[in-house]
Amino acid sequence: MYTVFSTFDVPPEKSEEVIRIYQNRSRLVDQANGFVNFLLLQNDRRPGELTVQLIFDTKENYLDWARSEDFRRIHELEKKYPDQELASIIPKVSKFKVVAK
């Protein structure tokens, strides 16, 4: 398995708004080949720190998703979000191969 974490900070007062956006996400990634799971994580001590976790069967499955038209479409929509403070956030992305369960 292969997992990707995208961590970003939003103003704490906007965290609930961002959480609602992800709760109503398009779910296009759910249809991607090899997709396993999506989670949105909120830091227990810093509510403005959010992490998207994606899990795929393989790194190749993830790379296929990251190169797809659906991926581009979703990320273009993010850039057009009306709240420019949120639209300008650049996440820290970390990628991992699962080596034990």
From TrEMBL:
Tagged with keyword RNA-binding: no
Record flagged with keyword Oxidoreductase: yes
Enzyme Commission number(s) of this protein: 1.14.-.-
Annotated ranges, domain ABM: 2-90
Pfam family, one: ABM
GO molecular function, one term: monooxygenase activity
Class in the EC hierarchy, top level: oxidoreductase
Alphabetized UniProt keyword annotations: Monooxygenase, Oxidoreductase
Protein name: Antibiotic biosynthesis monooxygenase family protein
Biological classification of the source: Bacteria, Bacillati, Bacillota, Bacilli, Bacillales
